[in-house]
Amino acid sequence: MARVIFYEKPGCKGGTRQKVLLTAAGHEVVAHSLLTEPWTAERLRSFFGDRPVAEWFNKSAPRVKSGEIVPEKLDADTALLLMLQDPLLIRRPLLQVGDRREVGFEVETIDAWIGLQPVDESFREMAENLMSKDLQGCAGGNHEHHHHHEGGCKGHEKKQTSCSH
User: How many CB atoms lie under 10 A from the CB of residue 93?
Assistant: First the structure.
């Protein structure tokens, strides 16, 4: 089992589902706020590997959705500068186990890397249900009922009701 450093947007339901799946697989999840982490360009860049710049971005960030920022038209240095200024632009979660770092929650990639199979039969049905969903996106599923503002989960610190991925 692995110790997973999990950089998230606190309170986001999608991140909560991802952490539940990791925990059910026996991993220790150490969550940090992606929004308040003191990032440097070099450290942030290390999570993206050889992915194209466009894949570094949270496609649901307000500035991306509005067309103000077009990830496909940016070079790496510009993308990192924008992300350091506005962490909502960063695709979530950022994951680290040992020296390896990844961005996003692609079930196949993470399962091959550290394993996502539940360690206890009692978690099997829940884990299979979660793995069958799109864990990259918002937990609510029906976007008509989501209230996207400031790229954030709606609600107060302790009560989160909706999420922008």
Answer: 29
CA atoms within a 13 Å half-sphere pointing along the CA-CB vector of 10: 11
Question: Residue type at 2?
Answer: A
- Residues of the chain whose pLDDT is less than 50? 139-165
CA angle 40, 42, 44 (to 5 degrees): 65
Distances in Å between the Cα of 127 and the Cα atoms of 25, 35, 103, 139, 162 are 8, 28, 21, 15, 22
138 among known catalytic residues: no
pTM confidence score:
0.79
CA dist 97 to 37, 66, 80, 92, Å?
A: 17, 34, 22, 15
Amino acid present at 129: N
Nearest to 51 by CA among 79, 29, 21: 79
